[in-house]
Amino acid sequence: MTFLSNLKIAHRVMLLAMLALIGIVAISAIFIGQRQVEARYRETADRLATQQRDVAAARDDIRSTLLWEKEFLLTRQLGAVDEFDKAFQKANSVIDRLKGDAGAEQAAKLAVLSVALQSYAGTFSVLVSKDKELGLDPSQGLEGAMRDAVHSIETQLEGVADAELKASMLTMRRHEKDFILRRNPDYLVKHAAEVETFTELMKKSFRPGAQRMRLAQALSVYQSAFRLYAQATLEEALARDAVGAAYAAVQPVLADIIDSYAVEQAATLEENDRIGQRNITIVVGLIAAAIGLILLSVWLIGRSISAPILTITAAMRRLAEGDTAETAPGAARRDEVGAMAKALEVFRQQAIAAAALEAEAAVARRDAEANRAQMQAQAEALARERLLQATGDLGAGLKRLAAGDLSFQLVDPFASDFESLRDDLNTTLKQLADVMGEIMQSSHSIDNGTQEISSGANQLAQRTERQAALLEQTAAALDEITANVLNATKRVEDAQQVAREADDSASKGAVLVDEAVSVMERIEGSSKRIASIIATIDQIAFQTNLLALNAGVEAARAGEAGRGFAVVAHEVRELAQRSANAAKEIKALIEGSTREVDEGVRVVRNTGEALHGIGRHVVAINRHMEAIALSSREQSIGLAEINTAMNGMDQDTQQNAAMVEESNAASAVLAGEANRLRELVSVFTVNADHGRERSTELRLVGGGRR
């Protein structure tokens, strides 16, 4: 404590701050070290996560190659092959990038995956070449050649009637389709046997010659094309199996790589967590030790500061209570407490001196208090005298004012302290006298004005009543005129409605006439077509008659053998003759009907034109009726507006009459109030000159109003 007592408080606080700073620097160094370790492990974990994402991307690209492989096998489109190559290149580039950052074990696994992918791509390329050889559509490759050969044979067999040969051809096609669907080599044997059967049947159906030779050549081409197609199909199936096996070989290698990256990442994260927990434990321990050391230092330094300060505080409290017998403790210290003790000692000496001065000042205060009491008694007696004088004069003036006398002034001067009260009372009396004089003159003027207003209001009320009676009569006449105009407007609207109905009836009649004309024209057309049909029937009857005549001639030439046929020919001629006669009669009737129809069409057209003329006249009448109705409506609206205006004027006139009566009553009330005001003001006594100028002004104003 001796060491600390020789240090100043600022130095002690600085020492405490240095200890805290050392603790903070140590803790910061530990935190920075932990951050660096965590950054290294986090960098490793991020790198592994990135590599794992790359592997996942490569896996997705490999899956895309499988999808594009299936797309090609389903659609036979070369665009799928291009997409396969793009996905393969992306996966291969990702694997090459992973090889550059991977360790030895991971690099070996990635190399195995790269080889497996190359094998998968190679087998798919072989599969694509086989499919191209077979043909990407039915018109290309071996399939196209086989179809052309089949169509050549079928074309040559179109004119052949041998059903057995055609059945053999169909059997060959069935074995061909079965092989294409099932890819079973047994159908190849069946197809070859059926080719031999077709050859034997061909030899039976065709004689040796060019046709047989062409059919044999087409059969040979078809057989060779089918054999090559079948061989390529089986090789394509093997290529598909190879592609599937190559893709299956990629999957376990890819899964092993993904698992290894995941395991490595998990181990790295676990190690990072373990080191982080260890560093946290160390930091917590160091922080606890630093806090303990700082608290101990704070307690020691605080104790070295607070203990002497408490001692000084107790000494200062005793000094404040007046105890000056004890000297200040700690005056020998070399810190701030020692300086405070020295200052306290100076205060103690000054307190002793101040106590002596206080005793001398008490004696002086007692002498001054006696002198002040004597002077105050003299001043209070003089003030009472002045106050009695002022209150007496003010009381007398206020009594005269209470009695209504405003014609006096206080002329005796007061003391200087109360002179303002006299001036204020004199000013108030003068102003009240002026106001009361003006009020008296104004009450006379108001009385005269109210009498004139009452007389004018009576005259105005009589004129307003006469005007209201005239307006009422005018409004009644306008109401009757408006009712007549409305009735006329209604009758015009009814007539307009009848005109519209007549117009509609005429329009409908015209439409019906047009339809009747159309029907007549269609009947006329049908009659003409029937006439042409009758003419055709007449010609047929004439031709039948000629044929029957020729048949009779031939039967006559045949003699006895053609007698029966001659009888039939004669009957046919009779029927043809009757048909011709009936046709002529029908033609005559149709011609008469046609003439009647033409006449009906003419009459109906004339009727339609007459109805159209009636409709035009009805439309003209309707337009005139509409104009009349519009004019009537406008007159009705104008009269209604005039009637409304007259009613409004009537109401305004009645309201004016009521207001005039109210004004008359108000003027009477105002006159009574003016008399009351004059009576109230007459209580006050004022000089004769007060308010004369104001009264003259009021009389001039009243005369201007009259």
Automatic annotation (TrEMBL):
Residues 442-671 form the Methyl-accepting transducer domain. The keyword Flavoprotein does not apply. InterPro entries: HAMP_dom, HBM, MCP_chemotaxis, MCPsignal_dom. The chain crosses the membrane at residues 12-32, 280-302. It comes from the Bacteria. The keyword GTP-binding does not apply. Its main location: membrane. Keywords: Chemotaxis, Coiled coil, Membrane, Transducer, Transmembrane, Transmembrane helix. Signal peptide: none annotated. Residues 354-385, 461-498 form a coiled coil. GO terms for cellular component: membrane. GO terms for biological process: chemotaxis; signal transduction. It is found in: Membrane. Residues 303-356, 385-437 form the HAMP domain. Belongs to the methyl-accepting chemotaxis (MCP) protein family. This is Methyl-accepting chemotaxis protein.
